[in-house]
Design brief:
alpha/beta, 13 helices
Length: 315
């Protein structure tokens, strides 16, 4: 009887301790779970501080030619965690938190325009011993990636653009209408309700996200609300269209047919401007193909890289 009481006590203690841990240290619990998922996908979290004091936190895994992945506005490095599972067997994958986002530095009063972010990322690449790399970018990350390739073409072997920003002559979207009519940016969150609504704007069929993760992620976004407003204003005043005209870097442009954030008409504009661009339009997909159609997006990219390699051999 005494043994049974001990067992019951242990079970109750485990349940209570679990509840206490989740309540008291949710950030640490989420970080543990994220690290498990990163490891499953072949990534580990690293950090480096540049000579100018900027601290970059990034995920890295795999071997081969370096492939740096740049997340979009309001996002972070983990936007590429799931797709990295299919990339790390082939490449040295580096998914970076931009300055101003995620766990990287948030310097006050800094220039966060795409050209300024490129300057920082070039210093990061140098610190990691990388002279030339393949570059992928989602939304704002694609905007930054194109800017890097346009300014320093010899440093970029290829571009992978997932609904990239910076093509402001493209038709307007639902996002533009909301901002114009309400003055509120649906990509930013000032409270938890706005954070929840954000998923519906960027994805056609948002995945289930446990409340624990919602609490932690929402807190981070709300804390960064003011800075994100500053960064957004710097983004929308910077266009890539003149910058990339005639850019010969091999480029894969991927756009979701149901993107409500950036109009897929921008893909046609870029296709006309960039002579070595290839466009893929994904059905039933929103603004984040690498999260909504992970395997297909990865397979398309791997095929693109094979095409580049084949052309290189022929030449």
């Amino acid at each position: 009887m005494r043994f049974i009481k001990i067992i019951i006590f242990i079970i109750i203690a485990l349940f209570v301790s679990r509840a206490v841990i989740l309540y008291i240290v949710p950030d640490q619990v989420v970080e543990i779970l994220l690290n498990l998922e990163r490891k499953r996908c072949g990534l580990i979290k690293k950090e480096i501080t540049l000579p100018d004091g900027i601290r970059y936190v990034y995920l890295e895994g795999g071997e081969g030619e370096p492939l740096m992945l740049l997340h979009g506005f309001g996002a972070n490095k983990d936007n590429f965690t799931r797709i990295a599972k299919y990339l790390t067997p082939h490449y040295r994958v580096i998914a970076v938190d931009h300055a101003g986002f995620g766990e990287s530095s948030h310097p006050e009063g800094a220039d966060y325009s795409p050209p300024a972010q490129v300057d920082r990322l070039r210093r990061l690449a140098k610190a990691l011993g990388i002279k030339k790399l393949h570059l992928g970018g989602s939304s704002m990350g694609g905007h930054i990636a194109m800017t890097w390739a346009a300014f320093y073409q010899d440093e970029i072997s290829s571009l992978w653009l997932l609904a990239p920003g910076g093509v402001w002559s493209a038709p307007k979207t639902e996002l533009n209408t909301i901002i114009q009519n309400t003055g509120r940016n649906p990509l930013m969150a000032e409270n938890e309700d706005e954070f929840r609504q954000l998923f519906d704007h960027v994805m056609t069929d948002p995945p289930y996200v446990p409340q624990l993760f919602i609490n932690v992620f929402a807190k981070e976004r709300i804390k960064n609300f003011k800075l994100e407003g500053i960064i957004f204003r710097q983004l929308i005043t910077d266009s890539v269209e003149k910058r990339v005209k005639g850019l010969e870097t091999p480029t894969l442009i991927v756009w979701g047919e149901k993107d409500r954030v950036l109009h897929m008409g921008a893909a046609d504009i870029l296709d006309q401007l960039m002579p070595n661009a290839k466009v893929i339009v994904m059905k039933d997909t929103g603004h984040l193909p690498m999260l909504e159609a992970v395997r297909q997006t990865a397979d398309d990219y791997l095929s693109f890289r094979e095409e580049i390699n084949a052309k290189t051999i022929l030449n």
